[in-house]
Amino acid sequence: MVKAPQYSQFEYTDRDTLAGRLMRRYWHPVYLSRELESGRAKPLRVMGENFAIYRSETGVPRITAERCPHRGAGLSLGTVEDDCLRCRYHGWKFAPSGECVDQPIERKSFAHKVRIDTYPCEDYLGLVWMYLGEGEPPPMPRWRRLEGDLPRFAVSDFRRFNYFHDLENVIDDAHQRHVHRDSIYQDSEYADEMPLLTAHETSYGIEHNSTFSNGDKRALLYIAPNCVYFRTSASRLRGCDGLLWQVPVDDFHHRIFFVVTAVEDEAQRLLGAMRDRLKSNGPAKPQTPAHEIIDSIVSGRMRFEDIEPRSDRLFIEDGAVLTSQGVIPDRSLDRLGASDAAVSLLRKIWSREMRALDLGEPLREYSWPDDVRPT
Ligand code: FES
Ligand SMILES: [Fe+2]
């Protein structure tokens, strides 16, 4: 008997995989806007594919295939000229449309017969966004509440394991009081209580609720396919809106993008104070890279309690637990309970959508309605 496909390989996102095809139906943040200076090209790797990303001299972000069609040099080594990118190896020049417009060493140019792939991209909320799927891109998701001239931080971090168990971690509210008990949960009013954890599917993904005995409710919002929207609860930075994405670099690495915006007055005061404190501290002092601390914890040379106070402490705490699960964990061995409601639902939704994609059936059209708020 032929075994039915399980549709559980969420981790593999190369272009020809089911999860990869699903992910390529959406826009993704791929770079911090402030780290892409005008007139510079840089290498970019997303879902196992290599690209060149550059900002034109007039400030417009552009993304092209990395391979130069002449003899394969990396276009990210190239030179930005106005809105075009010129290969460093023999000087072929490509317009934003992908057309080759100059072959300086060819006596008889055949530039009009050569082109490279280019990809839709734009700056939004301090991040460069990209669509790397087939055909016309869907509308870019917008968070109007977070737009405008509000105090905002956008950060990114490179992680040395698969993106999917990081995504599961972010929608798992139960882990907070254990993993972060020495940091944000130390002084949380909810530190001693385990709330009722529930999850249900919505038009944008999943609403994951934590309900406390006094009736208080926290709602984390998973926005398909790889974003979580939440209210920050750390005492030093309470009441901001946070958006967090896990974007695969390849099957063994991913990059997180985190945007925190102070929408309300009190949060604006806290975020403003934090920014002033960082400014008055001067340039950041060199510190041990987060991945080295994670390795020290996972290998038993260091304890969670030994992490010095630092702005990325939360990421280190999560990173240690996620690293211990493996680069690509075998989730068929998991024993899920009722408190894993959101994780179970996430897996169920992904399996269902991958199956539909495989069988050519209609997929669920998730879209962010922008009138829903996390609490
Ligand atoms: S490899 Fe790019 S111009 Fe030769
Ligand atoms: Fe966490």
TrEMBL record:
Q: Which Gene3D superfamilies match?
A: Rieske [2Fe-2S] iron-sulphur domain
Q: EC top class, in one word?
A: oxidoreductase
Q: Where is the Rieske domain?
A: 27-130
Query: Which GO terms fall under molecular function for this chain's record?
Result: 2 iron, 2 sulfur cluster binding; dioxygenase activity; iron ion binding
Q: Name one Pfam family in it.
A: Rieske
Catalytic activity, EC: 1.14.12.-
Known PROSITE patterns for this protein?
RIESKE, RING_HYDROXYL_ALPHA
Q: Which InterPro entries match?
A: ARHD_Rieske_2Fe_2S, Cholesterol_7-desaturase, Rieske_2Fe-2S, Rieske_2Fe-2S_sf
Keyword annotations for this protein?
2Fe-2S, Dioxygenase, Iron, Iron-sulfur, Metal-binding, Oxidoreductase
Q: What is the protein name stated in its UniProt record?
A: Phenoxybenzoate dioxygenase subunit alpha
Q: Provide the gene name from the record.
A: pobA
